[in-house]
Each structure stands twice: as C-alpha cells, then as structure tokens.
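This section describes the prediction task in plain terms. A model, or a person checking by hand, is given the sequence of a single protein chain and must write out its three-dimensional structure as a string of tokens. No templates, partner chains or ligands are provided. The sample shown here is typical of the held-out split.
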Amino acid sequence: MAAPKKSRGPAGGQGRPGRSLALILIAMVALTGGMFLADQPTPRLGIDLAGGTSITLKAQSQPGKPNAINQTNMDTAVGIIERRVNGLGVSEAEVQTQGRENIVVNIPKGTNSQQAREQVGTTAQLYFRPVLSMAAGGPTPKGTASPSPSGSPKPSASAATGEKASGSSATATTQGRAVTGALTKDTPSPGASDDPKASTTPPAAADQAGTALEKKFAALDCSTKAGRAAAGANVKPTEPTVACDSTGEAKYILGPSEVSGTDVDSAKGAINQQTGQWIVQMEFTKGGAKKFQKITGRLAQQQTPQNQFAIVLDGEVVSAPYVREALSANAEISGSFDQQSAEDLANVLSYGALPLSFKEQTVTTVTAALGGEQLQAGLIAGAIGLALVVIYLVTYYRGLAFIALLSLLASGILTYTLMSLLGPAIGFALNLPAVCGAIVAIGITADSFIVYFERIRDEIREGRTLRPAVERAWPRARRTILVSDFVSFLAAAVLFVVTVGKVQGFAFTLGLTTILDVVVVYLFTKPVMTLLARTKFFSSGHPWSGLDPKRLGAKPPLRRSRRVNARTDHPKEA
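The expected answer:
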C-alpha cells in the first residue's frame, strides 16, 4: 500500500501568520521609537496650520528692457526663489505668481523663516566691475579735490597659496573681504604695478567717469540707507556707475561690468583650512574663467585703486580687492564672514540671479487661528465619517468589524509616525489638504477590508468551512485590492506632478496612505483573519461573527449531497 502523500501547507502562509504580525508590530514600535528619538512627536505643520509670514513681491521694470516683466521671467523667478528658500531647509514654502507683476511667498514659522525672508527678494545680480575711483562713504564737500587714486589700500586678489597682500589689514571699507584664485601662466611681473611710468588714471577711465558721474559720486552719501539704495539703481551692466559698500564707509566709481554672475558655475560656503575663517568658494564656467583671467591680468598692470575690481551684488559692493596677478577658473571671497553670511551668499550665487528686480510690497504675519478652526472642522468631519464607517461595519459584518477596526488602528499608527518622521527627513509639513487626503484614505482602507470579507463570504456560500474559505478567498481579494490601490496611487502621483503648492500635500498624503493600505492588508489584516478563523467563535459560524452560513444562505457541502443522493437511489435499483 502506497504511503500517503504529505500535505503541503496552505498557501499564503496560513500556518505562520505570526511572522507577518511580528514584522509589522516591530515596524510600528521602531517608527514610534524613532519619532520620539528624533524629538518629533507630532507632524510638522504648514503655514495654514502653524502660522508664518506671507510676503508679496512686485516686479520692477528694467532699464532698456520694457518687456522684461513677462510670464517666462516670472515663472523663472518663482523657481529660483523656491529653490533658495528650500535650500535653507524651510519646508512647505509656497511660492506662486499673483497677477502679472506680483509673486506671493508664504514661509511657515520656523527656525530659518527669517533668514529665508531676507533672501526671497534678493535679486542676486552679481557683476565684477573695475574700480575707477574711491572715497569715504560720506558726501564730498564742495570745492574738495577729486578722490586720490592712491586711496586706502584694499584686500588683494592673489594666488591660492594663502599669500596675503601687504594692504590686507586696512579693511574697514570692505569688511575685510578679499578674493583669491588659481594662478595662471599669464601671471604678470610682481613689480608691474609699481612702474612709475604707469598712468595713474587711464584715458579709458577718464572717459567713462564723465562729469555727470563725478557729480553723482560727489553727492553720494553712503552713510544713509536711502543713499546706499539709490547708488547703482537702474543702471545697465554696460554702463559705468557709482556704488557703496555694505557698511556705507566707502563709495566707488565703477567701470562697466566685464564678468557677471551667470559666469559663476557654482558657489559654496566653506572654512579656510589655513585661517579657520568662513569663505565663499566660486568656480567659473569655461567662458567666465577666460573673462576673469582677462580682467585680472589687465588690472594687475595698474596702480591703486585702478588695480582693484569690485564684486557688486545687487548694486552693493561686497568686496573690492586689488589684483597683483592674473586669476582664472576658481576664486574665493574671504574676510568677515560668519557661517550664515557665507552660506547666504553662496546660496544666492548657486541658484542664480533673478531675471527681474523685485520690491517688497507687503509683509503679513499669518496666524494659525483660522487654520486651527478649519482643522477642527475637518477633524470633526473625519470623526463623523469614521463613526459612520464603524456603524456600517458592525451592522453588516458584525464580528468582522473587530478585524477592520484593528486594521484601521494599525494603518493610523503607521501613517502618523511616518508623517512625523518625514518632517525633518524630507521637509514634509501637514497642511489642510493633507488632512483631507488622510480622511479620504479611511474609505480606501475600509474598501480593501470589505473586498476581502466579501470574498470569504462567497466561499462560505459555496459550502466551504471558514479556514479553507479564508485561504481560497485571499488570492482573489488580493488581485482586486492591488488593482484598486494601484489606480489610487497612480492618480495621486499624477496629481502630485502636475500641481503645485498645497494640492501636492493632498496628493502626497493620498499616495502614502495607499501604499500603507497594501502593507496593512498583507501583513496585518490577512494574518489576523487567519488566526481568528481558528477560534470557535468564528469557525462555528456564530450569528454575531458575520460568517453565519445560514444567514449567508450557504449551500450544503457537495460531498454530503452526493452521499444522500446515492442512498436514496439504492432501493430503487434493488
């Protein structure tokens, strides 16, 4: 007699549902522990819930560019401002156009919100201009001779070997900032600038600094904020101009720009390993390196101050080092930087100059009161919806409602902990649309349970007992759940890609909860159903289990039916 074949374990891991439950329980404990270790017990809130600052910027017309304010430039400005703010670690910043000339920036309350506010409207138009003349920052009294070309010594632009110029100690007028770079083959002789025959004021410089410019320079008062703002305003890069340094202690006559910020390939704040001070490192593009080499090579042949070039950011002289030798691809701006000022300057240089100038029109502090009321109303609506779902499950599915509620609880724990951890991880902030997405997800999750429960009931109606019905129903329910969740996730992904601002919060939350629905159904709902199918309450078809064969109209088992028919037909044959 042949030995009976060993029966294979039921599909779907019926014999070991504890492993799946242990896995998801460990995940929930780990996420909860990580949430408290990261000191983030609650999700980060967006501006509509936590409050913050709303800034309205108005685009300014550009000299010589009457059509500069257009949709293309406004969209470009929105992208640059958004990258700048997010580059500072400010999450959920909302940047969008309003009308034809305005950009609205909403910055949630946070540690870097003030720093972000200072950068949103910074044009970051960077130019390297030769210095034609310089003087103290106050207005020049009438009858006073023009500033001497041999003004105060300035920081130098030298080789990247760490060599310091002899005049680097006199730094009051430029905040002690200097520029160094890579020494090229075209390095001029160190004594070239000391040639007594060299012209103190080149003819080109004299032509550029006309009478009108000299009068403007003499009247310029850099000691006032208004004077500094007026200096260099609405001037084309190809024209000479006057400018102030950021402290107001010095003023300059500058020649046309020869290198611009678009020639800077990248910039970053770093610590000088030799001095231990913060610097800004710049790398020029291939074309920018050639331009920089050309201007520094020419200026190295001049005398002070015509051997200086000014680094002008948004019309303000950041630094005005003098040049002793030609520089090329790389340069450093060094001096009185701290970490924040170095990273701020590197940030605006890295993300590029805005195509337009903007004026800060309004600054409004947004309170969370209105958002709090709306959040409360949304949570009440969500609670009512959840209560209706629970009433429906208990009324229609009875004991199976217990499994559904446990699954909803597991899904809620995973969603909450992930939202809390994603705040510091990727800058996710919970706003009102995101709350709506979480409420909608309750229905998606409950729908998955209902699909599985109905497949089990279908198997019981066919005359199968509960344990085989649970395993046979799972493959059919699994396919339906995966297709349904895939469609929901695809819709969320498309919505996230094609929308901006707060609507992305709704799409992100919907996509996240859809993924968690699959995880919960696979690792929690199915194993719990398998374990409860072994209990007497469910396996016996208790009327309150939701799986009562009589209530479901189950057919009698097929084998039992055949035996009865055989017994009734036998006497007739006899």
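For orientation: The first helix runs from residue 17 to 37.
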